[in-house]
Amino acid sequence: MGDVETFALGDFQLQSGSTLWQARLAYKTCGALNGARDNAVLIPTFYAGQHTDCELMFAAGRAIDPARHFIIVVNMFGNGLSSSPSNAPVPIDRAAFPHVTIYDNVVAQHRLVTQHLGIRRLALVAGFSMGAQQAFHWGALFPEMVGAIAPICGTARTSPHNFVFLEGLKAALTADAAFDDGWYDAPPVKGLIAFARVYAGWVYSQDFYRQREHTKLGLGSIDDVLRFSEQRYRSRDANDLLAMLWTWQHADIGAHDRFKGDLTAALKAITPRAIVMPSETDLYFRVRDNELEVHYQPILDFKTESIVGCEALIRWRHPERGMISPAQFVPVAEDTGLINEIGEWVLRSACTMAASWPAHTAIAVNVSPAQFREPGFALKVVSALAASGLAAQRLELEVTETVLINDDETTLAVLNELRALGVKIALDDFGTGYSSLSHLQRFPFDKIKIDRSFVRNVAWSQDSAAIVRAVVDIAGVRNIATTAEGVETVEQKDALRALGCVQMQGYLFSAARPAAEIAALFADTAKVVAA
User: Fold this and answer.
1) Angle 199-252-125 (CA atoms, 0-180°, nearest 5)?
2) pLDDT confidence of residue 320
């Protein structure tokens, strides 16, 4: 692509409030603008990459073709070509270089495209890894000027696991005494080598090594891969690597004034066509981080009709098929063993969200039999509570009667262990499975959830009403609360109240909602309670 061009931004104010003095963006173009000036494609660089590393993303006859497109490859801040610790003026050089966000990069790129190149519309923004994070931001921040975004192996927000992995890279690099807190005069070679070797285990997946894909790159052995990685990163400036690493760790499409931290609102702002291409074998930009969401359905008290908690419900927003019902994918996850990983993620997400709610509210999380059988499950619950700061008394774990069929003694031990922590246990879908009143006698349940199949006809069917009354009476004797599920009409609500149910949830009050919408409901429950 030849020599790079430079766009001088001047003194550029960053999202943090700091100023990036004498800021500049290095970029390269390929192809030509058409008469309508609507064939421009923007490709931001990825971590530690430069514009020449992105040449594989376009070629004659490919989807991005220089014969048909005007391609702009822009180097992100920190990569050694655009403004970076290694080339910034004193006093913001080296370790004093200010923190730069993905938002800052995209705002600067917008100025490059509109002010310098005179382009008002981009046909596509496509990027790999950190380039994908920039593509997501373009779609949310400037949707009116983008025809489509194509994030490849990247997420709209960096996941906690990804953040921790990057801490390992940082530790490896800065452990070298020669690094000198970023004020080195000579490269910290030992730190760069350690960085390169750690990164070699993450930048490529287990499948990459298992299937010996490295041989296709001319790397005949694992030692060759490590030497290749060392050669690549020894040529980079250590402060530059750390500057981009910070940007990566703090990538969040919702983290600025427009969306005020609301990830859902930011994603909804992406109106251009989104061609999301995650990788199933990627170790830090994972498929699940793009697609699974936790929604929350309010649970109300019958007496006060106020929200006393929510049930966390997983949703799968497929990039092509839209929202997919849990009934379709949860059984598959259980059969394949993925339910343990997914369930732990839901638990942690729900606890973190509930910690920000009013102190009197609870969060209910469904637990599959497979999770319950997993060694160390109670420790994972403790970890989720500790990480979120949520009081154990505010967490309810919902289990079905399937959990109780086999291995009763082991299950009882886990239930008692959880209750000893203060966690509440709810028996979900009571009466629809392998029902046995002995379960209520042997296991320490705090709540029974009455299945919607009994609630559906409770207002006019004596049989349904009798079953609900019997459950309520049994629960009352054992000091167990009851929650009626699937309440959809005022008549059902009135009948259940008369029968003595304690709590209710259902579409009469609210469907399961994204986290951002739940906070508003706590402020005014009357908005969702039917008259």
Assistant:
1) 85
2) 44
